[in-house]
Putative glucose-6-phosphate 1-epimerase (Lysobacter yangpyeongensis), 272 residues
Amino acid sequence: MQAQPTTFQQTPCLRLVGRDGATALVALHGAHVLSWIPADGRERLFLSARAHYGAGTAIRGGIPVIFPQFAGRGALPKHGFARTTPWRLVGVSDRATFELVPGATSAAWPHAFRARLHVGLDAGVLTVALEIENTGAHEFAFSAALHTYLAVTDLDAVALHGLAGRRYEDSTAGGAVRQQTTAELRFNAETDRIYVAPLHPLSLHDGPHRLRIDQHGFADTVVWNPGATLAAGIADLAPGEHRRFLCVEAGQVLEPVHLPPGGRWSGMQRLG
Ligand SMILES: O=P(O)(O)OC[C@H]1O[C@H](O)[C@H](O)[C@@H](O)[C@@H]1O
């Protein structure tokens, strides 16, 4: 894999090029994958036309790294600090590795940790892996997710397969626990579900296109689209843009990870 530094929207990025010509763009801000274009030339990740890229902001689209807190399930700002903090590039081999260690933005979470994100481009496949290490003397607990915004041509033509019979917490209904009865999930209103340990792979059907979604290490899968009403109140989404993505997130949400001193945890999501 080749890599070269570049900028996008005045944000320092790394552009990755795989052997087959596939590309990915990763911002150092958040170690945030902004784009993945396999060799066929079709972008697979959604990125909002109104996304903000400044210091301390969260980028709307791509693959936000959520750590050490998911959503508002704790005292930290929503979804934690990893997505709003600059990471550093460690190096590039068959994958690019980025690192985050405690700093000013994590002061509200007083634990010694090392977070690493690995991004790999293989023929037709994007692999993103998150590794958390406890570098301190005390156990800590965390949640995490790869909050992937998958680009779709039109939400009306989208169906997610592989969740039949699975239990989920419905965040649009105060966390009520439900079971999916249909073979496929379609999206005609706000959807915000945390599926408990679903089987993988899932398959995203977008008209004639198919995308395989696989995960390891992460116990849960979050499926999110704000729907028209909620989307209208999201300032960094352009009108109608909610129809252009579906978030399928590899997450460790319902059971936080308890990491002892010296302990390591890793989770990955594979698309393609
Ligand atoms: O707007 P954000 O802070 O990026 O959060 C976007 C969404 O993330 C997750 O998918 C949660 O399940 C949603 O409840 C939340 O609205």
User: Anything to note?
Assistant: Residues 58, 71, 78-79, 171, 192, 222, 224, 247, 249 surround 6-O-phosphono-alpha-D-glucopyranose (CB under 6 Å). The longest helix spans residues 227-232.
